[in-house]
Amino acid sequence: MMLAKNKTPTWLLERVAQGELDKAEVEQVRAELAAEGRSLEAELSTLRESNREILAEMPREMMAKAIERRATDAASGAPVRTPLRKLVAPLALAGTMALAIVMVRAGHGGHGTVPGVHPPIGPSAEEEIGIKGDSLPSPRLLVYRQRAGQAPGLGTAERLWDGARGARGDLLQLAYDKAPDSLYGVLLSIDGAGRVTQHLPEEGASASAPLTSVREIRLPSAYELDDAPSFERFVLITAPQPFAIGAVLDAAHALANRGAPARTLPLALGPAFHQTSVLLNKSSEGSP
Amino acid sequence: MSFDVESYYERFGPMVLRRCRTLLRNDTQAQDAMQDVFVAILRHQQRLHDQAPAALLLRIATNLCLNRMRSERSRAEDPDGERLMKIASTADAESEGRTLARDLLRRLFHAGDPLAASSQTIAVMHLVDGMTLEQVAREAGMSVSGVRKRLRSVRARLSQLEGGMTT
Lengths: 288, 167
Known about the structure:
The complex is a heterodimer. Chain A is 24% helix and 26% strand. By secondary structure, chain A is α+β, with helices and mostly antiparallel strands. Chain A folds into 2 domains: 10-76, no CATH class; 84-283, no CATH class. Chain A has a 6-stranded mixed beta sheet with strand order 2-10-1-6-3-4, with no helix packed on it. In chain A, helix 1 (10-17) packs across helix 3 and helix 4 packs antiparallel against helix 5. The termini of chain A are far apart. Chain B is mainly α. Chain B has one domain. Chain B has 8 helices and no strands. The model of chain B is unreliable at 93-112 (pLDDT under 50). Classes of the chains: A alpha+beta, B mainly alpha. The A-B interface holds A 1-2, 4-12, 14-15, 17-18, 20, 47, 50-51, 54-55, 58, 60-61, 63-64, 66-68, 70-71, 74-75, 81, 83, 133, 266, 268-271 and B 5-7, 9-15, 17-19, 22, 28-29, 31-32, 35-36, 38-39, 42-43, 52-55, 58, 71-72, 83, 125-131, 135, 139, 155, 158.
């Protein structure tokens, strides 16, 4: 019924690479590879190269912290393994929109705070936004651009879809809707300069914020983004139970440090987390 | 034994990640599973000894990936994936078994212990990785006859599953 591959098992190659097989066993592996037209040295070289790539992407310090944190969470019963689909309530069909305000500031080296702006009228319920990760029910992350010179809160905001073009100087408004009951979240952004900014909850908080679908949530402050190149990606991370922000920020920083992959890849978090993101491609000129 | 997580990850993390990627075919899930492997090691470090840690980690990774596949009900996208899913599913059949003998076997084989090679892990080593019975026996720390018995058991469950699927 089942036929094994006629190929030297990678499992054994890994053990050769770790120096765990004795000389006779190594020679046997070498002979089997040779019979397949392969070379042990070449296979080991490939593994070493793979090791380098993986450790460059996931450095030991970062991963050790993540593993130790996960072990602590597991010991304390924190939600590190529970599949989200088993716990979340169905989507609220008529959830209201909660808005955060983000501004793109020209000529500033970092993210600053500006007075809040009133949200515009939200889009229709059938509109969707890019969702990374699995297809579980989750809030939608919405991004609007307030046109310069126009008074906020007058329905003048433009919905920016995943992959839309933005520029420094843009005033952005972030929103989420369709949040299932009893959901907790962190909203952050990663930019093309490798920086991570936490929007929700406010910086300094150690735990995720409770989300709600029954009333509008506005962040008390707004932000101006700097002129970081290439892109700005907003990511909403949610889970059915409160979670510590530290691991999320670690994952965000790790992803941000990877450069271009941060445009699309999800944060390296467990299956208990759902991620929704909106990517804005940055242009050097201001928006039209 | 106790171990330093950073050093252990640096030495074995890439190997474990490759194993998880091979079985899960999903990078995000593989990264997650890899962390779970090291968490299992952390939690059971008092039971560890320093002999052949790579074999142990590969075994744990296989156990955990099969558990994950079973709980996630991943879709099989190729013949190997289908094979893995079937093997993973035999653990469900096992858990549904009501005979005392089967329960006893499970206890004897320490099913659910991430450090022990489950029957499903042994089946993957032989049927998916392509190891010989002798190689599986050595990697699992068992006798060849023990491996044969386990494989017979898994094959029987697979047959039951396939029979159930067609009825």
